[in-house]
Design brief:
Elements lengths: L5 E3 L8 E3 L4 H8 L1 H6 L4 H12 L3 H14 L2 H9 L11 H23 L11
Antiparallel strand pairs: 1-2
Helix pairs in contact: 3-4
């Protein structure tokens, strides 16, 4: 995972602390702490929710998530996230958002370049 620092306030109301996510899953949790503190689930989702609830600091949360994610069912967690009723409200991790913005800029630029390509007269539209 592209290491982009995340600022988290753990427990809620504490001073923000910088943590470094190591996976997509913990980056997603760090970007959506309020969501995962209220989420329900079993398996890895339940373990993540329990880690968020018991963490005394950002560092403690990062360490707990590292263990849970390393031992967990990532596919099950992904399905839990995808089928979450509040899926649309989730904030993507910053590195994902930056990557998608970069890709969108490239696509728009390429589309613009393609529209500027002129068609030779003999192949053009006849009036």
């Amino acid at each position: 995972t592209y290491q982009t620092p995340a600022s988290v306030a753990v427990p809620a109301g504490a001073a923000p602390e910088e943590v470094l996510p190591g996976t997509f899953e913990d980056a997603l949790v760090f970007a959506n702490l309020a969501h995962f503190s209220a989420a329900k689930g079993k398996g890895m989702m339940g373990a993540v929710v329990r880690e968020v609830a018991k963490a005394a600091s950002g560092g403690a949360l990062a360490a707990g998530l590292f263990k849970v994610i390393g031992d967990g069912d990532k596919a099950g967690f992904a399905l839990g996230v995808l089928y979450d009723t509040d899926f649309e409200a989730l904030i993507p991790p910053s590195y994902i958002e930056e990557g998608l913005s970069w890709l969108q800029e490239r696509i728009v630029k390429k589309k613009h370049e393609m529209l500027l390509v002129s068609v030779p007269a003999e192949e053009g539209v006849h009036e």
